[in-house]
UniProtKB/TrEMBL annotation:
One Gene Ontology MF term: carbohydrate derivative binding
UniProt keyword annotations, A-Z: DNA-binding, Transcription, Transcription regulation
InterPro entries tied to this protein: Homeodomain-like_sf, HTH_RpiR, RpiR-like, RpiR-like_SIS, SIS_dom, SIS_dom_sf, WH-like_DNA-bd_sf
Protein name, as recorded: RpiR family carbohydrate utilization transcriptional regulator
GO process terms (BP): carbohydrate derivative metabolic process
Ranges for domain HTH rpiR-type: 1-77
Organism: Litorivivens lipolytica
Keyword Mitochondrion applies: no
PROSITE patterns: HTH_RPIR, SIS
Listed Pfam families: HTH_6, SIS
Sequence ranges assigned to domain SIS in this UniProt record: 121-261
SUPFAM superfamilies xrefs: Homeodomain-like, SIS domain
Amino acid sequence: MSILSLLKSRYDTLSRAETKIADVILAAPDDAVNLATATLAGRAGVSDPMVSRFCRNLGCKSFPDFKVRLARDLAKKSSFITEAVSTGDSANTIIEKRINANQAALEYLRSHIDATTVDQAVDTLCSARQIIIAGMGGAAAIAQDAHHKLFRLGIPTVAYDDHLMLRMAAAGASSDDCFLVFSFTGRTRVSIEIAELVKNSGATLVAITNPTSPLAKLADLTITSGDELEDTTVYVPMTTRIVILTIIDILATGMTLALGSEVEYQLKKIKNSLDATKTSSRKRK
């Protein structure tokens, strides 16, 4: 049952305070997806903790979790471009909706990412002989971003978006290598085949993907991609991309701290190498 249908079916059983919250949501479900907890509480005239209790009573872990389920319900009638906007939205509305959607995504990540898994992923990446980054299709640009950050840390790092190159890299990997694979859904056949080759080679597989996917089942470590935040079959999956880019930043930061003073010198040396490519900031007379 959809979260909206569930809310309507339980409406008569809600407490007075919960009914106020339900009224705000049912009056404008599209707006509710983009509301912060404090904003919803203010509109309903209830406390922030009451919003959390309301969501738990509906079987949701938190208000961000409720918004994820609500967004998925609304996506069935949404634009093919992205479910956060609608035809006819003004520039101001698009700006507001996109920023709110991304903020909600980061709230979701905060409550769903597992710190222990992040620590294990950082340790695995830091101890790897080489890091092979895989991202195809919409994840290709994300893989390049990861490569741009991680190659600076002194560990040999490559990124591929071609499935034939990835198959060869997977088949030729050793047990000292680490594959960092990005996939929005974790259900693409090519990604699963490459993951199987990685496992056969004995290399470690770290996947940023849907934790319930076939790819996640093959991975040694899985961090959520936030795929459930939006329908990633839309033309431009935006919110999921923000989640994954943030995870890359978290891993890169963790690795930098774990590697210590040596990597600080490495980063400074790389940064200084770019000085000669820039024009002087001083104004010429």
